[in-house]
Each structure stands twice: as structure tokens, then as C-alpha cells.
Amino acid sequence: MISRTMQQQVNSSSIIRAMFEEGKRLSALYGADNVYDFSLGNPNVEPPAEVKQAIMDILNEENSTTVHGYMNNSGFEDVRGAIAASLNQRFATGFAADNILMTVGAAGGLNVIFKTLLNPEDEVLTFAPFFGEYRNYVQNYQGQLIVVSPNTKDFQPNLEELKEKISPRTKAVLINSPNNPTGVVYSAETIAALVDILRAKQEEYGTVIYLIGDEPYRELAYDQVEVPYLTKYYENTIVGYSYSKSLSLPGERIGYLVIPREAADYENLIAAANIANRILGFVNAPSLFQRVIAKCLDAQVNLDSYNRNRELLYNALVSYGYQCIKPEGAFYLFIKTPLENDLEFCTLAKSKNILIVPGTSFACPGYARIAYCVAYETIERALPGFEALINEVSWASA
Ligand code: PLP
């Protein structure tokens, strides 16, 4: 028999994954061209050419026992040094190799940091709407995820409610910008106001509250919008980064944590995060891909392709009468569902072979997420369905 906690997981397994499976089923029935699957954040843009070249160069030129061998739990020192130098150049920070811990993607990094920080019942605050896996990652270490309700005006975090919800048990505040599912980038003013609150609350309770930035979409920002670099605002910051989206490498499971020297209890944090990486069973991040990304630090995926999709989808949906914020980053659009019940709306959309994810799975009912990391033609073909959907709903309620 499986454990009670895993039984619960099996029962409530991810709705996004379920949609993905549904997409495959519908494709088999109606043909892939007639199914519009906007359910999963799986990049459809090729990794940059530098990635393939780097893989071949490494395999041809480097010592294969090093490339494929064990290493420090934190990762190759030269790779971590190269990442630190690249961050310093881009953001005028002062990191060294010791501040970087290579991880198994953003998911691995978040699990390492929660294992490092959380005692049972410790609280992690996050802002709705949020990536649903956060709940699992916090529960893995018996923490409590406390959700600050969404600010549906502009989807910047609701700071008034944050103030009320921080307690002496608050160990960390977790933010994700550019955001999944809204595509919103948290502004410099928002971050400055947020960290003022954290400082005041640390003072009031005599505690340390870490700010954790989950940043797999940092590089996917449009129209030159600035994505503030969090360690410059607040000393007790930990940044989780991933190459899943920025280099289109989600299956390769590669990312890193930044733990700055200024962070409270720095020496212990680093030591514990290293051990967590090992004892969670990751041991170390994939070695070939550590070496690959060190050669691709300036490489970028073709953002124009996502941007074209964003413009097409946003302009069309708004012209049909949908309400949504124009996303500034990531590859998601978050619409207010024309039916109040987002689950019903997504089921209706499915009847037109359009697969989108209800806002409820991001703790934001009444909305739905459209992942536009798909072929441009898929969006073109899906648009008549989106138009018919909103028209049907408004006739029904007229
Ligand atoms: N955080 C957010 C907000 C995400 O959207 C995702 C993946 O979609 C992850 C973390 C996990 O990313 P990774 O593939 O790097 O583990």
C-alpha cells in the first residue's frame, strides 16, 4: 500500500498534466491539426544553435570521465564561477562561485531551499495566482503554504494582504516574476514596497524572512521591460533560476540557486543547501548540461517567435471581447473567463478542441491560462473557436 500523503497526491494529481493527456487523446480522435492544445508550458521554440554546438564540442574535446563523473554537490566550480561572472556583468552584483549552487531545474532548486529552511509548520507566503506545484514543494517538508489573494486589477502582488498574513512563523515569501500564469512582471516599485514590508516585519517579530525569487521566465520579457534583480533590493534573498524556458531545455533539468553572502546565516545556508541537494537524491545537477550552459551564457532563444504569438493572441482575444492584461513576460495569457465558473468554461472550450487551464488550479477562480508556446498557425486556427466561445456564452446569458 502506498503512503497516505501519496494517496492524496494520486487523487488530486495535476490538472495541467491531465489536460495534456486529454490533448493527446483528442489528437488521436480528430487529428493533431484540429486540436488546439494551450495547456502546457513546454517551449516550442528550438534551443539556440549554440546549445547543440556546445554539446558536440564538449563530447569531442573534454575528458569524458570529468564530463560524466561525480563532482561537488554544488556543481562544477568553473561553471559556477562563469555564472557568477555573467550575473555580475548583467546586474552589477558581486557574486562568486560560492554563491551559486547548480540544481535540477527550478523545481529541484525550490525543493533544495525549502528542505534547507523549513521546520514543520513553518509558513511560506505566496501570491495568487501561482504555479500550483508550490503547494507540493512546501508540503514536501511539512511547511504551510499561505496564499495571499489575487489583485485582479493588475496582478501585481496584493501587499496590503501580505502585511496582514505575515506572522512570526513566516520563514519565506515566494514570488515568481515574470509570472506563471499571468505573464505580469513585478515592477521595481512593487519589489521596493514588498521588501520594506519584509524588513518591518523582521524587526517587529525579531525573525528572518527570506525572499525567494522563482525566475525560470526571467529571460522571457518583452518590449524591454525591466525585471528587477531581487538581491539588489533585499539582503535575505535567494534566487532560483532555470534554463528550462530561457534555453528551451526543460527535459535536461538544469538550473541554479543564488545564495548571496549578505543573506542571514549564509554559511549554514550554503552548507545545508549542498547537503539537501545530495540527500534529496539529486546528488548534483546533470553534469553534461552544467558544462553546456557554461558555454551558452550569452545565448538566447528566439523571443520574436513568442512575441508574435503574444501579439496575435492578445489582440484577437481583446477584439472578441475577452478581458485580460497584456502579458509582459513568460508565454502565458490569463483571461477572465466569460462564464464565472472557470471549470465550466474550460470544459466548454474543450468541446471546441481548445485546451486551456482553469484559473482555479492557480488559486484564481474565474480566470483561465492560455499557454501560447505553440505554433503561430495553431493560434490562427484556434481563433474562430475562441470567438465562437465568447459569443455563445454571451447569447446564453443575454
Ligand atoms: N516555477 C514556475 C513558475 C514554473 O512555471 C515552472 C515550470 O513550468 C517551474 C518552476 C519548474 O521549472 P523547471 O523545469 O526548471 O523545474
Automatic annotation (TrEMBL):
This is Aminotransferase. Its cofactor is pyridoxal 5'-phosphate. Keywords: Aminotransferase, Transferase. Its EC number is 2.6.1.-. Belongs to the class-I pyridoxal-phosphate-dependent aminotransferase family. One of its GO terms (molecular function) is transaminase activity. Residues 35-383 form the Aminotransferase class I/classII large domain. Pfam families: Aminotran_1_2. The keyword Membrane does not apply. It is an enzyme of class 2 (transferase).
